[in-house]
Amino acid sequence: MACHKVAAASFQLLSLVSFLLFLNPYSSIFLEASTIFANSNTVDDERSNAASIEEERKALLEFKQGLQDPLLELHSWVGKDCCNLHGIICNNQTGNIIDLRLQDAQISGTLSINSFSGPLPISIGNLLHLGYLDLSSNSISGPLPISIGNLLHLGYLDLSSNSISGPLPISIGNLLHLGYLDLSSNSVSGPLPISIGNLLHLEYLDLSLNSVSGPLPISIGNLSNLQNLNLFSNSISGSLPTLIGNLSNLQNLKLFSNSISGPLPKSIGGLSHLQTLFLSLNSISGPLPTSIGILSHLQTLSLSSNSISGPCHFQHQLEIFQICRPRTFPITQSQELRLAGSAISGPLPTWIGNLPCLRWLELSNNSKMNGTIPESIGQLRELKNLFLHGCSWEGFISENHFQNTSRLDSFYLSSEAFNSLVFNVSHDWIPIFNLTSLQIIDCKLMDTAFPVYNTDWFWRFSPFLDGVVLSHNQLRGNLPKSVSSPLQNVILKNNSQVGSLPLWPNVKQLSLASNRFSGPIPLNIGHEMSKLVFLDLSRNYFSGNIPRDWTGSLDLKIIDFSNNKLSGEIPSSMCSQLPSLKWLRLSNSNLSGNLESSLQTCRNLSALDLTGNNFSGTIPDCIGDNLHTLSYLLLGANKFTGNIPHQLCDLSSLQVLDLSQNNISSSIPACLGGLKQMTTGDGGLLGNSWVMNLRISLSLYGPMHIDLNVKGVEYEYIDNILGLIKKFDLSSNNLWGEIPEEVKNLMALGSLNLSHNHLTGKIPEGIGSLHELEALDLSSNHLWGLIPSSMTSMTSLSKLNLSFNNFSGPIPSANQFPTFDPTSFEGNSGLCGPPLPTQCSSASHNDLAPKVEEDEEDKYGKLWFYASTALGFIVGFWVIFGSLVIKRSWRHAYFQFLDNMKQALLLLLEVTRLSRSLRAWKMVD
Ligand SMILES: *[C@@H]1O[C@H](CO)[C@@H](O)[C@H](O)[C@H]1NC(C)=O
Ligand SMILES: *[C@@H]1O[C@H](CO)[C@@H](O)[C@H](O)[C@H]1NC(C)=O
Ligand SMILES: *[C@@H]1O[C@H](CO)[C@@H](O)[C@H](O)[C@H]1NC(C)=O
Ligand SMILES: *[C@@H]1O[C@H](CO)[C@@H](O)[C@H](O)[C@H]1NC(C)=O
Ligand SMILES: *[C@@H]1O[C@H](CO)[C@@H](O)[C@H](O)[C@H]1NC(C)=O
Ligand SMILES: *[C@@H]1O[C@H](CO)[C@@H](O)[C@H](O)[C@H]1NC(C)=O
Ligand SMILES: *[C@@H]1O[C@H](CO)[C@@H](O)[C@H](O)[C@H]1NC(C)=O
């Protein structure tokens, strides 16, 4: 079809367009609007229009060259007539491209490329007549080109879910007709340009899930037609501009998960059409302005995880919630009040019961909220989610608190005030609601008839329970053998439950830690509980062997059986049957055997903790060969013998190595100084991408997701067992030889313990480079020499133990050294100076070699030492004086001289030490 053109320009038409734009700048009207615009060309423009179509066609084809298009969506983009191409609509009179839509087409590339036919880059900005552009959900990268500002007719721009980076160009402010702008889920950075305030027709602005920073520009107050402003999950800082209150058509304001600070401006009362206000996860402070109370359309007020302060009598602010507006469409529109995790104080007022349409009430984690929970919450007949955990409640919760809450679905309760909240409902109470999620932590559970509750009772809360958290409640009794509800998440840790392990088929996460369960772990657990992801049975009295058959549990990621009475070996098939296993913790039981066969197939483990068992034999080489992803290897307090296999040095993710309290006799492999995770600063717990995912999923959904707390427990668990992030513990073995010089490379190490071994030699001078080291224990070895002065630069060091060695000379006095206790240095007869009572005489500035307990081997070692020192002296002498004599350039020689003086002094020290040592040696002989 040939594109033809009708000349029909009129001022009236233009005004009509503006009017249409004003009414509804996006949606299909735009198509027409752009059409009409194009029509407004005069007859004189005929030739130039033909040229412009040619330009557009060329731009389009060149643009295509720069794109990758695996689905061949752009395959048709050849030939002269561009108007029939896939995703393109032309104006049927002028032939100009007015509409480009290629959503979710797996296209990658940039919006601007260097032209092969001209000097200027070709970009999307060359399609001058575009009214509608949708390239959402592709893989477009690079910045939004400045030339986007040429698209003066653009009414609809959707580039969401791509990889666009860099700041928004100022030229975006040229798009005066833009009604819809969606750049969400990209990597846009930098502040919003002031020019955004020119987009007076904008109704929808979405830049959520980007990296936008800086404060919101004041000009945002110009956008008087804006209905939706979504900027959540960015890095916006500063306080909310007062002019935000001018957005009188705004219906949804979503700014959660940013760094917004300062108080909420009073002007917020100007948002007279506001329905949802999502500002959680920021740093907003001060009290709630009373002007919130005039927002007559407000349905959701979410300010959780901020620093809102002041007493909790928000009658004025929440007056609006007293009116039940008809529920229009989505249920989520019904009223929600989320004020968790702030600094709100005082009691919850009784009038809270006057908010009859409240569906979601979240006041958790306001530790300054105190007093009793008013029974009036029982009148909230629409209430579905009630979160009252982490406040300082006291008094009783009774049936009256649930009188009319027949829609209650999730209920979380705990008190920060110790032992002050009593959950007291009668034993035969039948709740009028069916919960899917219940969490009661650290409460006194009481009943007039029974002094404590049996867990059985809690299943009555609902036949539909999905998640149950009842930790720290002194619960007693057995668990039911089966449950009718589709239970998936069960956290019952820290109670006094007895009996055997129940096999509940749907459970994914089960923690029964710190109870009094006993008996064997059922052999068929792998089949009966095949959906398990997380299984924590630690701190109980489980006995017998670890089940051999795990074939059903394909998703099991975490196993913690620590602190039980399990015996026997780790079944050799365990790892091969558990392909998802990341975390295996079997510490402090009676397990035994050789690891060689058990660990052959454990290829995906991140953490292995076998501390405190009776495992024996050598540490198998296969750990280094197979367990490439291992971050935590804890084998302490067992009966391992042999040496430290060099293969451990290949564990590039290793962050914690604990081989303490075994009978390992070898030298310390120098290659351990090359462990990648310990030599680089990044990573830490977060270096483990799997843990990282967990953390991200938590922070993203934050307080908005009901399953947060069950996941939260998992998270807490992971953090707890890994209190110390990067750690090396080889203490209490039979290690000999010197501390390898390579230790200086472990710059990310937080704790190093080599105590209670037979190590000899001096502390390597390079140890001063361990700037992250917080704890260093070298006690009870045969180390000697001066405490290297470089150690004063280890400014993180807060725990130091050098006791019971043969160190000598003055204790360094710089930086944090004076803060160490005398016990850090005791048992070293040659050490002097504070904090020890021994004064340093001039003679004690020496580096005394050991005088005690020498065997033949040590003597030969020492002979070699003296020989090499003497050699060093001779070589050193000639290097220094030789260089002084030979140097020609005096200026150079002067500096060289200073440097040489320093070396000479050091050398002198060495010589003195040599003579002292010789004397000491003679004395021993
Ligand atoms: C242009 O074409 C479309 C369909 O291709 C039609 O619906 C529309 O009415 C046409 N517009 C004009 C102004 O002819
Ligand atoms: C937008 O607001 C700024 C100040 O907030 C003002 O100077 C500017 O003139 C406004 N722009 C338009 C187009 O109204
Ligand atoms: C904002 O609103 C106030 C009062 O409603 C008005 O005086 C002021 O001119 C408005 N500012 C802008 C930039 O629109
Ligand atoms: C409340 O505190 C708990 C424990 O500190 C935390 O896991 C949770 O994320 C917090 N929730 C909110 C909504 O702040
Ligand atoms: C709540 O806490 C405040 C401040 O600590 C205290 O003054 C007040 O007495 C407490 N109220 C109750 C009911 O415990
Ligand atoms: C609450 O339920 C009781 C019956 O249990 C009823 O008499 C009362 O009217 C209800 N109150 C409200 C506010 O719905
Ligand atoms: C709770 O579930 C039971 C059993 O299915 C049902 O009889 C009852 O009506 C439900 N109650 C509510 C309030 O939905």
Automatic annotation (TrEMBL):
Name of the featured protein: Putative non-specific serine/threonine protein kinase
One GO CC term, this protein: plasma membrane
EC number assigned by the record: 2.7.11.1
Chain segments annotated as transmembrane: 863-886
Biological process, per Gene Ontology: anatomical structure morphogenesis; plant organ development
Domain Disease resistance R13L4/SHOC-2-like LRR: 172-258
UniProt GO molecular function: protein serine/threonine kinase activity
Membrane topology: Single-pass type I membrane protein
Class of enzymatic activity (EC top level): transferase
Span of the signal peptide: 1-28
Primary location group: membrane
Subcellular localization: Cell membrane; Secreted, Cell wall
Keyword Secreted part of the UniProt annotation: yes
Coiled coil residues, start to end: none
Source species of the chain: Rosa chinensis
Keywords from the UniProt entry: Cell membrane, Cell wall, Glycoprotein, Kinase, Leucine-rich repeat, Membrane, Receptor, Repeat, Secreted, Serine/threonine-protein kinase, Signal, Transferase, Transmembrane, Transmembrane helix
